[in-house]
């Protein structure tokens, strides 16, 4: 699930905050062409570090329950370009290359990428483009960085999202994003209010900090990430262990892509559905999510 911030919105209605206010406790890594914001916990030397890769429209705060959930393990959660505290893209780029740049700067040779939605696609891209840097991977809410949708519920949601992007009301855009928080089988009232509020806050901060306007007040389209070529057709190249974790209440396409990923890779893989959760099982069922991840990394 990716996004483009291409509609015009008044920043004063979104509650603009400085990066320091919005992202306390975040580290900033200045590279030649960007600044990467990231959160970090745990010691070095306890096995391959875990790289927590967030979904579209949100940021590394979505990994709050996981940052301290793996004692003895180094855990790093970066913000993708154009989200959270990281800088906006000024030229063509690939999300997978940004992650490798962070790993190199932090002297991480091999890691376990764990990604949800957009971040899950980046985790798969890492295993395809840099297999020697990936010990295992965990993917949730997608199958590759080029998701495919056929479910009418998802198709309608994305159509409404595109329409909202062309309008002037960011509330409509956020409302569509929150459909994925609930999934097709629940209403807002059936979702943990704390989870709903966190997604809302992150989405508003994304708009407030990264929606750019020209001198005439017109929106400037963001530079989109360059896709990795043919990820679905290349899944057989992945020999590292794969764990696909799907929220049982997520949409059919999101769950189905996780199952397809597991069927297509050449290495050991399994698909686990997390009950009581939709698109963000790490937030709605952190104990189950973390236990499945722990089992995977313990076996490495």
UniProtKB/TrEMBL annotation:
Transmembrane portions of the chain: none
Keywords per UniProt: Hydrolase
InterPro entries, per the entry: AB_hydrolase_1, AB_hydrolase_fold, AB_hydrolase_sf, Epox_hydrolase-like
Domain AB hydrolase-1: 48-286
Entry GO CC: membrane
The organism's place on the tree of life at top rank: Bacteria
GO molecular function: hydrolase activity
Protein name: Alpha/beta fold hydrolase
Origin organism lineage: Bacteria, Bacillati, Actinomycetota, Actinomycetes, Micrococcales
């Amino acid at each position: 699930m990716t996004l483009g911030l291409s509609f015009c919105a008044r920043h004063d209605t979104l509650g603009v905050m400085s990066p320091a206010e919005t992202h306390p406790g975040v580290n900033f890594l200045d590279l030649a062409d960007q600044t990467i914001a990231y959160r970090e916990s745990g010691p070095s030397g306890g096995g391959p570090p875990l790289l927590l890769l967030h979904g579209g429209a949100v940021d590394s705060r979505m990994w709050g329950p996981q940052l301290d959930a793996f004692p003895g393990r180094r855990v790093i959660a970066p913000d993708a370009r154009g989200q959270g505290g990281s800088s906006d893209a000024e030229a063509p780029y690939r999300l997978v290359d940004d992650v490798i740049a962070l790993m190199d700067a932090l002297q991480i040779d091999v890691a376990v990428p764990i990604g949800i939605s957009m971040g899950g696609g980046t985790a798969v891209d890492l295993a395809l483009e840099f297999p020697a840097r990936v010990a295992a991977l965990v993917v949730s809410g997608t199958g590759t960085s080029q998701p495919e949708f056929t479910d009418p519920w998802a198709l309608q949601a994305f159509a409404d999202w595109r329409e909202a992007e062309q309008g002037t009301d960011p509330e409509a855009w956020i409302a569509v994003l929150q459909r994925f928080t609930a999934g097709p089988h629940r209403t807002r009232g059936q979702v943990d209010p704390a989870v709903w509020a966190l997604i809302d806050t992150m989405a508003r901060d994304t708009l407030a900090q990264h929606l750019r306007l020209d001198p005439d007040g017109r929106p400037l389209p963001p530079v989109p990430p360059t896709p990795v070529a043919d990820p679905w057709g290349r899944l057989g190249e992945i020999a590292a262990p794969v764990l696909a974790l799907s929220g049982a209440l997520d949409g059919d396409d999101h769950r189905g892509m996780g199952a397809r990923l597991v069927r297509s890779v050449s290495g050991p893989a399994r698909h686990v559905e997390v009950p009581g959760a939709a698109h963000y099982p790490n937030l709605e069922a952190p104990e189950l999510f973390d236990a499945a991840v722990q089992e995977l990394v313990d076996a490495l």
